[in-house]
Amino acid sequence: MLPHEEAWDLKPENGHVNAQSLLIESYYWDCVDENSPLGSDTGADILSFYSKAITSDRELDPVKFIESTLESWEMLIDDWSLSDEASIKQRMVDDPHTIRVSNEAVIALAFAMYVMHGDVDPRIRDMAIIAVDRESTQALLAEWCSARERSERLADFRYKLTQMRETR
Questions:
Q1: Exposure string over 133-153, b if 16+ CB within 10 A, otherwise e
Q2: What Cα–Cα distance (Å) separates residue 45 from each residue in 50, 54, 72, 88?
Q3: What is the CB neighbour count within 10 angstroms for residue 18?
Q4: For residue 49, what are the domain limits?
Q5: How far apart are CA 39 and CA 9, in angstroms?
Q6: What is the torsional sign of CA 113, 128, 7, 65?
Q7: Residue of 42, 59, 141, 163 with fewest CB within 10 Å of its CB?
Q8: pLDDT tens column, 120-145
């Protein structure tokens, strides 16, 4: 059973053994926690869409997948390497939804890959780490009711991303 199938639940026993070992905090497996990689609407959609796409195309390029998905949503960030605080602040003024959704989506994809396969494409992992760093700026943390909790979770997301095995 796969994440895009109706009866599949986001829980450790349905994830790859590597994910079970690394993602020990319960919020990684909470499908309704907006402050978890796969619990937001964006995260849940990415998990399901990726699962379905990889089933029909085993050679799927995950970078093309995330970019085409975000482009179809009209939410594709134009610079994945964007990291300086001043530029991020300006983007939050100009188009806050695109930067937020792009960040959520690439972070979700990294965790979805790990849950499903036990490894992650290094390009996606690197993009997700930069997205976590963007989410950790004051400009984006200010959007959360509990910036402290969000900051703590982001630090854990970043650590977990650095510990994930890369695809061979």
A1: ebbebebbeeebeeeeebeeb
A2: 8, 14, 13, 25
A3: 17
A4: 12-163
A5: 12
A6: negative
A7: 59
A8: 999 999 999 999 999 999 989 988 98
Mean of pLDDT values over 139-168: 93
Nearest in space to 132 (alpha carbons), one of 168, 167, 98, 156: 156
Q: Does pTM surpass 0.85?
A: yes
C-alpha angle 22-26-31 in degrees, rounded to nearest 5? 110
Say if 1 falls within a structural domain: no
Provide the mean pLDDT of the chain: 94
| Exposure string over 50-75, b if 16+ CB within 10 A, otherwise e | bbebbeeeeeeebeebbbebbeeeeb
Count of beta carbons in the 10 Å neighbourhood of residue 161: 23
Number of domains, the chain? 1
Domain assignment of residue 72, yes or no: yes
Token output for 134: 């963007």
What residue type is 120 in one-letter code? Answer: V
3-state secondary structure of 120: strand
Please indicate, yes or no, if residue 116 is contained in any of the structural domains.
yes
Using CA atoms, how far residue 56 sits from 48, 50, 77, 97, 102, in Å, is 13, 10, 26, 30, 24
